[in-house]
Amino acid sequence: MKKLLVLLTSACVLVLISSMFVAGCSSKTGNQPSTPDTAKVYELKFSSWNPEGGLLAKVETEGMKRIEENSKGRIKITPYYSGTLLKNVDTYKGVATGVADIGYYTVGVTPGVQELNYIFNLPMPGLPDVVKTTNVYRELLKKFPELQQENEKNGVRWLSLTAMPHTYVHTTKKQIKVPADLKGKVIIAEGEQLCSVVTSNGGSAMSGVGGGDWYNTLQKGVADGILTHYVAINTFKTHEVFKYHTEMGEGGLGSIAMGYLINLKTWNSLPADLQQIIVEGFDWAGMERAKQYLVEEGQYKELEKGMGQIIYKTTPEETALWEKTLEPINEKWISGVEAKGLPARKVYNGLQELLK
Known about the structure:
- By secondary structure, this protein is α/β, with parallel strands linked by helices.
- Helix content is 49%, strand content 15%.
- The protein has helices at 2-30, 36-39, 55-70, 91-96, 130-143, 146-152, 192-199, 211-219, 230-235, 264-269, 272-306, 316-338, 344-355; strands at 42-47, 75-80, 102-106, 156-163, 168-171, 186-188, 204-206, 225-228, 244-247, 257-263, 310-313.
- The strands form 2 sheets. The protein has a 6-stranded mixed sheet with strand order 7-6-8-5-9-11, with helices on both faces. Strands 2-1-3-10-4 form a 5-stranded mixed sheet, sandwiched between helices.
- The protein is globular.
- The termini are far apart.
- 38% of the residues are buried.
């Protein structure tokens, strides 16, 4: 009996030692450093119709360099500028289908794909400067997940948003002070809402005119003016044909948003830490451009004053008339989008709260 007990005890000890040895080996194997997430390099394609060497392209290139450095080489982005990969009008679909992983996109370029996100394209009075408006737009995007959900149904999502300079009216022959002054005028405008600002006040809206055609269209008198921002008219060398510029209150007729879309499958393939790094990189690039916009806008206004052009700022009473013109236009957008089952009023009211 004693011999049997000794044998059983010895066997238990051997099993225990063997188990400890196996456990120790397993622990050592689990601590091996290389894992798929840290070893894999993600090579992405970025598309933009902006010219290579331009101010926006420069900050975008720097932003992508920061992404590569902060990811320790785990993300490498190859840029395609000047529309060499995707034309402007093809960007939304091209990113959704994976032609590009990331694309520069301006809200409203592709009608119908962003019903709720079109709030970033509405003629919105009272917006602060472009840097502050950029922060408001980004906060709105975080506050209402429905904005991202709309894009995700189409196979994309926003990485970042940036506001462009305020939209004002620039004219060649007659100064515009109040909406009624648009009567009988032909004004270049893009988007249903801005066109409605013109037509609801007795003018004719001319859309589909590319920036390269602005100069001749205005100089020959085919159009009397344009609704856009100072940076745009100077970028396309159109500033010299104008005599008058009208700024309707602090925010003019609003600030259209530009941003960076990423293919949803590409986004979902990235580890969480790389998602954060890529968002921060494009946030940085967009904010740098917003700061540049502020400087450029001031410079261009001084240039136009030096050319003898008149920059008119509306009185509070005149500004109220412009705001009154925009109310039914924006209400029509809200009703139309609500009818499609999207929370347009909630998001619109949220934007008003953020502006306060």
